[in-house]
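seq as requested:
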Amino acid sequence: MPAIADLDTLLAQMQPALDPGRYAFVVLPPGISPDPASVIATMREPEGLSAVLAEHEAIALGLPITFTAAWITLTVHSDLAAVGLTAAFADALARAGISCNVVAGVHHDHLFVPVERAQDAMEALHALQHSAAAREDSAPRATFS
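struct tokens:
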């Protein structure tokens, strides 16, 4: 399926899915190399290599955990050049008082929210999706003769 760039379509079809795990944001010190299969995401920063790992993996490695998160994937195949998707879901979560850290993959956007607010985040995202779907359903359709 091709990537979707239209904002209304992205919102109406975003289908958030909550992963059942707990995820830790950490900084990997020199010499510590987690199993690459257990690494969810990394970002090279001047201060070191930030990583998102399953919480149990971070604990097993003795890494200080900066943030523990729930992982929500927007399962719609979003175009990396689409405009407004991040702003729309960030606004919906902000209105609910929920922080969000976003990682964009080639196919999907991945949201990391405070683990204790995971269900609230899912409710806010579903409300955003339903609102967009209702707008899409009520939009006038072009007719051709």
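The first strand starts at residue 16 and ends at 18.
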